[in-house]
Amino acid sequence: MKKFILADCNNFYVSCERVFNPLLDKKPVVVLSNNDGCIVSRSDEAKKLGIPMGAPLYQQKDVVEKNKVYVFSSNYQFYGDMSDRVMESLEMFAPKLEIYSIDEAFIKTNTISFDDIFKDVVNIRKKIIKWTGIPMSFGIAPTKTLSKIANHIAKKRTYEGVFDISENNVANDIMRNLPVEELWGISNKWGKKLRHLGVSTALELKNSNAKFIRKHTSVLLERMVYELRGMPCLDIESISPKKNIMSSKSFGTSIAEIEPILEALSSYAARACEKLRKQNSKASGIYVFIRTNPFHQNKPQYKNGHALNFDLPTSDSRVILCAARRLMRGLYRKGHKYHKCGIMLLDLVPDNYKQAHFFSTNDSEDQNNFMKTVDRINNYMGPQTLFYLSQGISKEWKMKCENRSNRYTTKWSELLEVN
DNA sequence: TCTGGGGTCCTAGGACCC
DNA sequence: TCTGGGGTCCTAGGACCC
Description:
By secondary structure, this protein is of the alpha+beta class. It has three domains: about 1-165, Reverse transcriptase/Diguanylate cyclase domain (Alpha-Beta Plaits); about 170-240, 5' to 3' exonuclease, C-terminal subdomain (DNA polymerase, domain 1, Orthogonal Bundle); about 245-390, Dna Ligase, domain 1. The protein has helices at about 10-20, 45-50, 60-65, 75-95, 115-130, 145-155, 170-175, 190-195, 200-205, 210-215, 220-230, 260-280, 315-330, 365-380; strands at about 5-10, 30, 40, 70, 100, 105-110, 135-140, 160-165, 245-255, 280-290, 305-315, 340-350. The strands form three sheets. A five-stranded mixed β-sheet has the order 5-6-1-7-8. Helix 10 (about 210-215) runs antiparallel to helix 11 and helix 12 runs antiparallel to helix 13. The N and C termini lie far apart (about 55 Å). The mean pLDDT is about 95. The structure holds a DNA duplex.
């Protein structure tokens, strides 16, 4: 029988920090989101202190100080590079893996030959930990949904970090004690709805009438019923280019004037365009938005967004920046303190996509060559070596990032030093 | 004081057509 | 006086993921 394996890094961002800083072993460690806002990765020691996932840092200040928790700002360049190393290592054993997120990948067993799946996976896991320094867990099951559950058990229960849920008829016992909200694809809203229908555990969902579930929820949960029964509805997905690309960030401090907002927007747009060209796409349109801080309900709130279509799809930063700024000037209202803005590149098409247009000139060879040159220089000399003046120089909107570790693997000046 | 960012998929409902 | 039904396409918004 074909099986799915979910390979997942343990406490990924924290584990990355530990690779180059062994003093952090066995200590409580957390990593923050952008702007040092929320806690998005926790070591086991930090979890034991009761620090919840996603909690704002300021609400955990007491626990953090009392227990000397190590706190790191996010360092995505570094984590991204470590992720590449882990995935490339996995690919050596399983060439057709589906990279599901920065720290997880699905593998299907018919793409590799195993003598004994369990034993072989234990060996793969050992090798990857040795090569990358990142601890991982592996869940084995007949469907993706079940492999998620198996992975969960592997993390908690077994010392080898590998668990096969299809062995020894343990699946039902595990599901009997698993609240529906902990299933992959169900969260609070659906959980409530299911409980309302009399379904509160994974096992009860598995034994429900699939059509009944679909009628009262959606096709997604109908699929899940079958997946829990061991009938695969979800397969390994091949890598496809993104359909939209987004770049947005909250400002380090709230901003009332339009100029710094335009600078921030230009920077986000430039970043989005780099991602766009990297995946060899062009955008047919853009959406730009702005908003005040929704947590300050006692202050006047404003949020708005506008979209625009280009005559022809483009990946030219200059065209996109100009259009974005024009949209923003239309959105901005004086008298508010703004907290966040962003841009989404819409309806992406392959960059070799050609369509004749009588009047538009925004898709010339010159433009493409110009952007390629800019990207090449920034790749070689470092991000932002060349930038647009409209991104500004003072950058008062720049996000907070007070405890970032070194970019050990991607920046010469920040390599680990051994004395 | 301080509350992330970047995605995907599905559904309902409106506009429009014949 | 009595005013259809069925289909498609698009969009906005909701829900979920990590």
